[in-house]
From TrEMBL:
<dbReference type="InterPro" id="IPR050922">
    <property type="entry name" value="LytR/CpsA/Psr_CW_biosynth"/>
</dbReference>
<dbReference type="Pfam" id="PF03816">
    <property type="entry name" value="LytR_cpsA_psr"/>
</dbReference>
<feature type="compositionally biased region" description="Basic residues">
    <location>
        <begin position="11"/>
        <end position="25"/>
    </location>
</feature>
<feature type="compositionally biased region" description="Low complexity">
    <location>
        <begin position="1"/>
        <end position="10"/>
    </location>
</feature>
<feature type="region of interest" description="Disordered">
    <location>
        <begin position="1"/>
        <end position="25"/>
    </location>
</feature>
<feature type="domain" description="Cell envelope-related transcriptional attenuator">
    <location>
        <begin position="109"/>
        <end position="265"/>
    </location>
</feature>
<comment type="similarity">
    <text>Belongs to the LytR/CpsA/Psr (LCP) family.</text>
</comment>
<protein>
    <submittedName>
        <fullName>Cell envelope-related function transcriptional attenuator common domain-containing protein</fullName>
    </submittedName>
</protein>
<dbReference type="InterPro" id="IPR004474">
    <property type="entry name" value="LytR_CpsA_psr"/>
</dbReference>
Length: 364
């Protein structure tokens, strides 16, 4: 009896820490992964488990109804299970972005644009950057206020966003490429900065000094861990690399994208719920997607389907362009390279090496 009496009081004391452990594990197990493929596109994150946490993050995401805005006059979907996602980085000077040193230009423009092609099997990815200074034919677009923006020729690609909104950018890309965009994602400057700070910075290595007073970037040749403000300057710098054009900085943007994706994939998101929430909140607060992806659960499902992709093996290409004969400060799609590139993507096939070579390189 005395032995039994000694044992019984000990049982609750052993169960109590187990109860705390079970509650801790349950909370961790309820953490759901979310993904933004942004800036590159392929950003693996994590969302909260409790309902209030889920609702908070879910309510952050803005959606655009592409079906309503674009109608039925669109390219056919890929003949395979491959996917194409248009990823935009917008440079709106409004709101939180006004304090980020992004200039005094009114309105918003698509400062970064790329088509992320994910072939069938989802084990690889190709990112095709579209230079913002590319002259394009803009189709007639239905604007967000319900009015119609008339078609126009020889307009700068990055002006399409400010005049017609993101759906018009999708329509313009589809018309110029013949490739259907299955999804659309956009992140603004403020969200980009907060995301980098939330993950603790991104490490990059450069092979030359970069000093750009316009962007504020001042880096010596070598390896650097950039915080959010420095990262923003890094992807926006143009006067410190190549010939000072938009083409020169595309290489930096692509390099940073891969470094960012790799850094996020290495994060111990399940081991730190607080850090996970900070990453997810900064990401979703500045995220706009097509309506099919405009929820935490949809992003999580999409992200899980991309887990086989290693950012380090992602191929980056710039749309082949040449300097415009009438305006050497602008570029136009180079032929036949551009047509060959888009044709390969439409077929979900391998892109020929000849289609990856751009006559205009920006001095890089």
């Amino acid at each position: 009896m005395s032995h039994a009496a000694a044992v019984r009081p000990a049982r609750p004391s052993r169960r109590k820490p187990r109860g705390r452990e079970r509650r801790h594990l349950t909370r961790g197990q309820r953490i759901r992964r979310i993904v933004l493929w942004s800036l590159l596109a392929l950003l693996l994150g994590a969302g909260g488990g409790a309902y209030w946490l889920y609702s908070s993050l879910d309510g952050n995401i803005s959606g655009v109804d592409l079906g309503k805005a674009l109608g039925g006059d669109r390219p056919e979907k890929l003949p395979t299970s491959g996917q194409n996602i248009l990823v935009l980085g917008s440079d709106s000077r409004a709101g939180a972005n006004a304090s980020l040193g992004t200039g005094k230009v009114a309105g918003a423009r698509s400062d970064t644009a790329l088509v992320m092609h994910i072939p069938e099997g989802r084990k690889a990815a190709v990112a095709v950057s579209i230079p913002r200074d590319t002259l394009v034919t803009r189709p007639a677009c239905l604007k967000e206020d319900g009015s119609t923006l008339p078609s126009a020729q020889r307009v700068m690609f990055n002006s399409v966003y400010s005049l017609g909104g993101p759906a018009c950018v999708v329509k313009t890309v589809e018309k110029m490429s013949g490739v259907r965009m299955d999804h659309f994602m956009e992140i603004d400057f403020a969200g980009f900065k907060e995301l980098v700070d939330a993950i603790g910075g991104v490490t990059v290595t450069i092979d030359q000094d970069i000093h750009d007073k316009s962007s504020g970037l001042d880096l010596a040749k070598g390896t650097h861990k950039l915080d959010g403000t420095q990262s923003l300057a890094f992807v926006r710098t143009r006067h410190g690399v190549g010939d000072g054009s938009d083409l020169g900085r595309i290489g930096l943007q692509q390099q940073f994208m891969i470094a960012l994706l790799s850094e996020i994939k290495q994060q111990d998101l399940l081991g730190s719920p607080t850090k996970t929430y900070r990453i997810a909140d900064s990401l979703t607060s500045s995220l706009t997607t097509d309506s099919e992806l405009a929820s935490l659960s949809a992003l999580a499902d999409f992200g899980r389907s991309m887990q086989g992709i290693d950012p380090a093996t992602m191929e980056t290409i710039m749309l082949p362009v040449m300097y415009d004969k009438r305006d050497p400060n602008r570029v136009v799609a180079a032929e036949p390279q551009a047509t060959t590139l888009w044709k390969a993507i439409r077929a979900d096939g391998e892109i020929p090496e000849s289609a990856k070579k751009s006559p205009a390189t920006g001095g890089r």
